[in-house]
Design goal:
heterotrimer, A mainly alpha, B alpha/beta, C mainly alpha, A: mainly alpha, ABC transporter involved in vitamin B12 uptake, BtuC, two-stranded antiparallel ribbon, two-stranded antiparallel sheet, 14 helices, globular, C: mainly alpha, 13 helices, 71% helix
Chain lengths: 334, 366, 334
C-alpha cells in the first residue's frame, strides 16, 4: 500500500519535546548526523589539519558552484520536476560569458546577458514539460544535448576560451575567515532558499505542487506557474554557476560541467531530495549532502587516494541514504 | 504506528552515519598513495614531488604516475598523485591541495588548459616550480612532444604511402577529431593534415573532411559511417586523427561499409599499432612513449631543483622548451618489435638511471 | 506507485483500458508520430541529397541500431514493468564486455564466452534487483548508485580493452547476413522474442500488470519480488547480449563508452511511447524509435551540418519529439 506522504501532515503535537523529537528525526537531521560523522572521520584520519582554514577553504572553493546550482535545481525537484540540463547549462553559460568578456565586453553586462539566456533555456524546458506535457527526463536530456553542442560550437577549434577577469577572480578568492567569498555567497543562497522553502507560503505551495499535484490544484495552487518558476530558477542557478566558474577558473572549455547533473543529484538525494517524488527535500539538507560528498572527496585528495574510490563511496552513500528515507516511512517501492 | 518507531528511527539515523563512517574507514584501509601530514615537521625536509595526472581511463596516464612513483622512491623522495579528472574545476582544486601540502615541485598534465593561467598564478605565489607535460603554459617547464610536429610526422608518412600507391590521387582525407582535447586536437590532427599536404600538395581543400569521434573508437565508428556513406564516390581515402582509437574507428567503419580496400590510416599515440589485434588498414602510428616522460622530468629538471640549482624555465613549445621529445613515427612492421606498455615500463625501470624509452624502443632513432 | 511521479506528471495510475470514445488501438498515435517523423526525415534528406537512399546508408544505420536497440529493449523492459529506469546500463554493458574480450583472448570457445557474457549481465541485473527488493528502494536511485560504483570499479580494473581480432566474437561482429550486418539480426530476433513473450505469455503479462499497478497486481497474487528479479535479471541478460554485439563490432573500448549509450537509450525508450510510469507501451515500437534516432545523425551529415551543430539538432529534435508526444498524451488523457 503506498504510504501517506507525511511531509504534508507534520506532527500535530506541538509540545516542545515533540517538536524537538520531530526535528531530530527529520531527514535534515539524518544528513546532519552523516555530515558530523564525515567530519569526525576526517579529524580522526587526517588530524586537526582537516578543519584548518586552508583545508576548509579548499573544500569551500570546490563545492561552492555545485552548491549554488544544486540549491536551485533542488527547488525544481521539490516542485516535482527534474532538470537534467543543469550541467550543460553551466558549461554553456560559462562559455558565453568567457566568449564575450574575452572580446572586451563589460563583465556585468555580459553576466546579465548570460543569465537572460539561462532564463530563456529554462523557459523552453518549462514550455516543453509543463505546457506540452513532455517527459521531464527526456525533455531536459534534449536541452542538455543542445547546450553541449552550442558550447562546443562557441569554444571553437581549441575547445577552450581563456578569459581571466581579474577583478572578478580576486573578489571571489578573498576570504572571510577561512571561507572564500564564493562559498559564503553560496551559503547565503542556501539560507535564503531554506527560509523560502520552509517558512513562506511560496515554499509550502512548491512542496504541495510537487507532493500531490492534483490535491494542490484543487487547493487553488497554480502548479503550472510554480513549475515554470522552478524550472527557470534551476536554469538561472546553473547559469549563475557558469559565470562564477569563469571567475574562479579563468576560462571555459567544451567539457565544463559535463556530468555535473549526476554528481549534484546524487548528492542532493543523499541529502534528502528525491528525483522521483516531489514535495520532499530541504535546501539545508541538500547542501549538507553536497558537503558530505565534498568532505569525503577532500579526505581522499589529501591522502592522495585514487579518486575513483570517491564514486564508489558516493554510490554506497546514495543507497544508504535512500534506504534510510525508506525506513523513515518514505514510499516503499514494491 | 509512530510511538514504537521513534526510538528505532533514531537508531536508523545512526545507521546512515555508521555506514558512512565504515565506508570511509574501509577506504582508509585501501589507501595506496603516500600520505600527507602537514602538521608533521619532518615531512617538510624530504623533497616532495606532486603530480596531477590527466584523468580517467587512459592507460598511459596511469603509466606516467606509476613510473614517477618508482623514480621518486628510488631517490628517497615523497610522491603524491592526484587526478585532474579532465575537469578544470578539479585541476583547480588539486592545485590548492598541492599548495597546502607544501609540494616542492609539481608535475601537471592538464587536459583542460583554460584553467592553467589561474593555476600558474597560484603556484607562482607559492613559489612552487611546475613541469607541464605536452601542454605549454607561460612560466612552467615545458616537457613533451611538439604535438604539431608529431602530427606532421604521421601525416607525411601517410602522404608518402598515398604518393606511392595512388600517386597522390586521393579522393578524401578524413580527420577523426576530438574537440574535447582542445588545443592538442587542433595541433595534432591539424598537424596530420599539414603533413599529408606537405607530401601531396595538390589534394584540393574540399577533399579534407572531418568528423567528431571524441577520441573513442565506439564514438568514432558511427560518425565515420555517416561521413563515408555521404561520400560514396570516394574510392581512395586517407584517415588521420587524434589517436589510434579515433583512426581505427574510421577504418572499421569503412570495413563495415564494405569499403575496406579504399582506406589507409595512420594513427597517433601508438596504442593500437602493436600486439595481435592490429587493424589491417592501419599503416602506422606515432609513439610518444608518454609513460616514459617522468624519466626526463626527474633527471633533467627535478634532480636539479632538488639539488638547489633549478634549470632555466623553457616554457614555449616551439622556440624554447625545456625538454622537447622526438615523436617516433613507425610503420606496422616496425611497431611489431615494440613491446606493449607494461613491458616497456618494466624495461625502462630496469635500465640505468636516465635511460629514455625513445632510446630503448624507437627503431628510427636508436 | 504514487500519483506524483516526476516522469509523467499528468498521467494517472488507473488501468488504461477505458476505450470509450477512442476506437484506435492504444499506441497508434505514438506509432504514427514516430513513423511519420522517420518518413519525413528520410524524405527531406533524399530531396536534399538523392544519394541518401543507398545500401551504404542502410548499413550505416543498421550497424548503429544493433547495440542501441538491444540496450533500449533492456531499458524498455524495466520501464514497462514499473522499474522506471535502469541507470546502470553503462556498467551492464561494460562489465560483460570486458569479461568477454578477456576470455576470448584466453582462447575460450566463443559459445562459452557468449554464455558467460550474457550470464554476467544477468547477474548484474540480479544484483540491482536484490538491493531494490531487499531495501524496497526505488530502482532509479539504486541503479544510479550501483552505476557510480560499478563504473568506478571498472576504471580501476582496466582503462582500455581490445577485442581479439581472430576470435569468433570479432568474426561474427564483422560479418553480414542477407546484406545486413550480422549483429543486426540478433537485435531483431531479441526484439521479436521479448515482445512476443511480454504479450503472449502469462509471465510477460504479469510483468506489464505489475508495471501498470503494483497494488492491483499484488492483490491478484502476483509476486512482486519474483517479477522484479525476473525483469532486472532479463534486462541485465539483454545488456550482456548487447555486450556480445558491442565487442564484436568494436575493436577496442574503454569503461567510459557505456555512458555514451545511456542518453540515446533513454531517448529511444521514451520516444517509443513506453511510459516511464509502467504498464503501457509496445516493445516493438523500439524498432522504429531506434531506427529514427539512428537515422538522424546520418541525415545531418548529408545535410552538410558541422558536427557540433549535429549535436544541437539532435537535442532539439528530441525536445520537439517528446513535446509533441506529451501534447498527444495530454489530449488522450482528457
Amino acid at each position: 500500500m503506498s504510504a501517506v506522504d507525511t511531509t504534508l501532515a507534520p506532527h500535530l503535537d506541538n509540545s516542545r519535546s515533540a517538536r524537538v523529537k520531530g526535528m531530530l528525526e527529520s531527514p535534515v537531521a539524518s544528513i546532519a548526523i552523516a555530515l558530523a560523522v564525515v567530519i569526525a572521520v576526517g579529524l580522526a584520519w587526517l588530524g586537526g589539519s582537516y578543519l584548518s582554514a586552508s583545508n576548509i577553504s579548499i573544500i569551500g572553493s570546490f563545492a561552492a558552484v555545485p552548491i549554488i546550482v544544486g540549491t536551485c535545481s533542488g527547488l525544481a525537484l521539490m516542485s516535482g520536476v527534474v532538470d537534467l540540463s543543469i550541467g550543460s547549462m553551466v558549461g554553456f553559460s560559462a562559455t558565453a560569458f568567457a566568449e564575450l568578456t574575452s572580446d572586451g565586453w563589460n563583465a556585468w553586462e555580459t553576466a546579465a546577458i548570460c543569465l537572460l539566456l539561462s532564463l530563456v533555456c529554462g523557459l523552453i524546458n518549462a514550455l516543453a514539460i509543463v505546457t506540452f506535457g513532455a517527459d521531464p527526463i527526456a525533455a531536459t536530456l534534449g536541452m542538455l544535448t543542445v547546450l553541449r553542442g552550442l558550447s562546443t560550437v562557441l569554444n571553437g577549434n581549441t575547445g577552450a576560451i581563456a578569459s581571466l577577469v581579474s577583478g572578478f577572480y580576486d573578489f571571489l578568492n578573498q576570504r572571510i575567515g577561512p571561507f572564500p567569498i564564493l562559498f559564503v555567497l553560496a551559503m547565503l543562497g542556501v539560507l535564503v532558499a531554506t527560509l523560502v522553502a520552509t517558512k513562506t507560503r511560496l515554499g509550502r505551495h512548491i512542496r504541495a505542487a510537487g507532493g500531490d499535484e492534483r490535491a494542490a490544484r484543487r487547493a487553488g495552487i497554480s502548479v503550472t506557474r510554480i513549475r515554470y518558476g522552478t524550472l527557470m530558477l534551476s536554469a538561472l542557478g546553473a547559469g549563475a554557476g557558469g559565470i562564477l566558474y569563469i571567475g574562479q577558473l579563468g576560462g571555459s572549455s567544451n567539457l565544463l560541467g559535463t556530468g555535473l547533473e549526476f554528481q549534484i543529484y546524487a548528492a542532493l538525494m543523499i541529502g534528502g531530495y528525491s528525483i522521483l517524488r516531489g514535495g520532499v527535500g530541504n535546501p539545508a539538507g541538500g547542501v549538507m549532502g553536497l558537503l558530505v560528498v565534498a568532505g569525503v572527496g577532500n579526505m581522499l585528495d589529501v591522502k592522495s587516494i585514487n579518486p575513483y574510490y570517491v564514486n564508489v563511496i558516493v554510490g554506497v552513500l546514495l543507497v544508504a541514504a535512500v534506504l534510510l528515507d525508506r525506513l523513515r516511512g518514505g514510499d516503499a517501492y514494491e | 504506528m509512530k510511538p514504537t518507531l521513534r526510538p528505532r528511527r533514531f537508531m536508523r539515523t545512526a545507521l546512515t552515519g555508521a555506514i558512512a563512517g565504515l565506508t570511509l574507514l574501509a577506504a582508509a584501509a585501501c589507501s595506496s598513495g603516500s600520505t600527507v601530514s602537514s602538521s608533521n615537521g619532518k615531512q617538510n625536509q624530504k623533497f616532495k614531488v606532486c603530480m596531477a595526472t590527466g584523468g580517467a581511463g587512459l592507460d598511459w596516464m596511469k603509466g606516467q604516475g606509476d613510473v614517477a612513483r618508482v623514480l621518486a622512491k628510488r631517490r628517497g623522495w615523497d610522491y603524491v598523485e592526484l587526478s585532474n579528472n579532465n575537469d578544470a574545476a578539479t585541476a583547480n582544486k588539486n592545485a590548492d591541495v598541492f599548495i597546502q601540502d607544501k609540494c616542492k615541485a609539481v608535475i601537471e598534465f592538464n587536459g583542460q588548459p583554460s584553467v592553467n593561467p589561474v593555476l600558474a598564478k597560484k603556484f607562482a605565489a607559492a613559489k612552487i616550480p611546475v613541469i607541464t607535460y605536452d601542454i605549454g603554459q607561460k612560466g612552467w617547464y615545458f616537457l613533451g612532444i611538439d604535438n604539431k610536429k608529431a602530427g606532421e610526422a604521421g601525416g607525411a608518412a601517410l602522404g608518402r604511402i598515398a604518393k606511392q600507391k595512388w600517386n597522390c590521387n586521393v579522393d578524401l582525407v578524413v580527420s577523426s577529431e576530438a574537440a574535447a582535447a582542445g588545443v592538442v586536437n587542433q595541433q595534432r590532427t591539424g598537424g596530420m593534415r599539414q603533413g599529408v599536404k606537405s607530401v601531396c600538395p595538390n589534394i584540393p581543400a574540399s577533399k579534407y573532411v572531418s568528423f567528431e569521434g571524441n577520441g573513442l573508437l565506439s564514438s568514432a565508428q558511427p560518425a565515420a559511417r555517416a561521413l563515408l556513406a555521404a561520400h560514396t564516390s570516394a574510392k581512395r581515402i586517407l584517415v588521420v586523427g587524434i589517436n589510434d582509437s579515433g583512426v581505427v574507428g574510421a577504418l572499421q567503419a569503412a570495413e563495415q561499409l564494405n569499403r575496406a580496400s579504399q582506406v589507409i590510416g595512420w594513427g597517433q599515440d601508438g596504442s593500437l599499432i602493436s600486439g595481435s589485434n592490429v587493424n589491417p588498414h592501419l599503416a602506422g602510428s606515432v609513439f610518444y612513449f608518454l609513460e616514459g616522460y617522468p624519466v626526463y622530468a626527474f633527471s633533467k629538471i627535478l634532480d636539479k631543483i632538488a639539488a638547489g640549482s633549478p634549470p632555466a624555465v623553457g616554457d614555449d613549445t616551439h622556440n624554447n622548451p625545456t625538454v622537447l621529445l622526438p615523436p617516433c613515427p613507425v610503420t606496422r612492421g616496425q611497431a611489431a618489435k615494440i613491446p606493449a606498455m607494461p613491458q616497456r615500463i618494466k624495461k625502462l625501470l630496469a635500465a640505468p638511471n636516465g635511460t629514455t624509452e625513445d632510446s630503448l624502443f624507437c627503431p628510427n632513432h636508436s | 506507485m504514487t500519483g506524483a511521479t516526476l516522469s509523467t506528471p499528468h498521467l494517472n495510475t488507473e488501468p488504461p483500458r477505458s476505450r470509450g470514445r477512442r476506437e484506435l488501438p492504444e499506441g497508434a498515435g505514438n506509432a504514427a508520430l514516430v513513423f511519420g517523423a522517420w518518413l519525413l526525415l528520410v524524405l527531406a534528406t533524399t530531396i536534399t541529397r538523392p544519394d541518401f537512399i543507398s545500401h551504404q546508408t542502410l548499413l550505416s544505420v543498421t550497424f548503429t541500431m544493433s547495440v542501441t536497440g538491444v540496450l533500449a529493449l533492456a531499458q524498455a523492459l524495466v520501464a514497462i514493468s514499473g522499474g522506471i529506469l535502469d541507470l546502470s546500463i553503462p556498467t551492464a554493458l561494460i562489465l560483460p564486455s570486458w569479461l568477454a574480450v578477456t576470455l576470448a583472448a584466453l582462447g575460450w570457445s566463443s559459445w562459452l564466452v557468449v554464455l558467460i557474457t550474457v550470464t554476467t549481465g544477468a547477474a548484474w541485473g540480479a544484483l540491482n534487483a536484490s538491493i531494490i527488493v531487499w531495501g524496497k528502494l526505488n530502482p532509479i536511485i539504486v541503479t544510479l548508485g550501483t552505476n557510480f560504483a560499478g563504473l568506478a570499479v571498472m576504471l580501476l580494473v582496466f582503462q582500455s580493452a581490445q577485442t581479439p581480432l581472430h576470435s569468433g566474437l570479432s568474426h561474427f561482429g564483422r560479418g553480414y547476413f542477407l546484406g545486413l550486418p550480422n549483429i543486426f539480426w540478433p537485435m531483431l530476433l531479441l526484439l521479436a522474442l521479448v515482445g512476443f513473450l511480454m504479450r503472449q505469455t502469462r509471465y510477460g503479462r504479469r510483468a506489464v500488470a505489475v508495471g501498470g499497478s503494483p497494488t492491483a497486481a499484488k492483490s491478484r497474487g502476483i509476486s512482486l519480488r519474483k517479477t522484479r528479479f525476473a525483469i532486472f535479471g532479463s534486462a541485465g541478460a539483454l545488456a550482456g547480449a548487447a555486450a556480445v554485439l558491442f565487442t564484436g563490432s568494436n575493436a577496442n573500448f574503454t569503461p567510459n563508452d557505456g555512458t555514451n549509450y545511456l542518453l540515446s537509450v533513454i531517448a529511444a525508450v521514451i520516444l517509443a511511447g513506453i511510459s516511464l510510469s509502467g504498464g503501457r507501451g509496445h516493445l516493438w515500437m523500439i524498432l522504429p524509435s531506434v531506427g529514427f534516432l539512428s537515422t538522424v545523425p546520418v541525415s545531418l551529415v548529408f545535410f552538410g551540418l558541422n558536427d557540433n551543430w549535429q549535436t544541437v539538432m539532435q537535442g532539439a529534435i528530441l525536445i520537439i519529439a517528446v513535446a509533441i508526444d506529451g501534447l498527444r498524451q495530454k489530449r488522450l488523457a482528457r
